[in-house]
């Protein structure tokens, strides 16, 4: 059990949890930044978590839900108030409805997570600030302390599983719901470099080339919300081709962009694509959360080999753009 102390301070209206780990600070930090890892321990064992959004950046947000043994869902959110990469972050933590809206009949809290090196590895100090003594007692009565203890008891296994963590450097996908898919890839470069490579036409043409034997024939980039983009490809020396089009809905450089996307000329609704970039010890964790209209559409597109195609593009990004 990594927890070494739990201290309730009725005067300051805080709950402080200290936990020690036999891994470097960078490894512990990465476990909290990567949605694939934090969802393995944030919820108690009987209530595993699923993160549908996880933007670890100032002004960012996380949306998650925990699923109970009977299928009941409990939703929550974080609003990131401050982030110091590799050292600390502060969030507003609250309960949410199934639509992700804050629950007005439940209290929200402020939480700080501080990471520091120790002779044995690393220490995480979590301080929860409550709005009143009554709220503190209410949430403790609901089992908050026991839930945190049970959840953090799972972290050691995640931190020790370095083999699967290293394997996750390649592009992978997880099904988050009937309509949501999360695509993840660690790219060996800075957040700023990866953002630039996604938003400068000259760089995009170097790595987003499409299938072997194809070339990018059009690269119209959207940089301001409300603008539209168009990426087109054609066979080298031929006329066959296709294009992806969409609108930039939100942009928070260099951490997050939200777009719609559809195949030009194809029937059916567009997908919603949420790109998030976060610094980790190996480089930058790139996360795409794609929302489809239905499960059939989701599975049909995944079956085209989309993930392997994305891996080829990201490998090209590393070798031909970041490695040059």
UniProtKB/TrEMBL annotation:
Residues 23-159, 190-319 form the Activator of Hsp90 ATPase homologue 1/2-like C-terminal domain. SUPFAM superfamilies: Bet v1-like (SSF55961). InterPro entries: ASHA1/2-like_C, START-like_dom_sf. Belongs to the AHA1 family. This is Uncharacterized protein YndB with AHSA1/START domain.
